[in-house]
Amino acid sequence: MEAKIVSIGNSKGLRLPKQVLRQCRLSEGQAVTIGVQGTDILIRARTSPRAGWDAAFAKAGARRVRQNLWGDVPVDENWDR
Fold this sequence. Notes:
Elements lengths: L4 E4 L2 E4 L3 H6 L8 E6 L2 E6 L7 H11 L18
Antiparallel strand pairs: 1-2, 3-4
């Protein structure tokens, strides 16, 4: 597949065909990261550093593991001694 570089104001741009965007699961307005590797331009969807946390917390909350982490350690909360 080929594309041409076009002028966009003082910058240059590249129009990506809809098929390419669909295949890469990208949409208009979505943030991407752009990098250079040798003479290649890499465009990647930007992912959230916390992607998947909601599902992980939901799964962890569903387990409800209750255990005594202190074992038989006597608990004395009198700090005024």
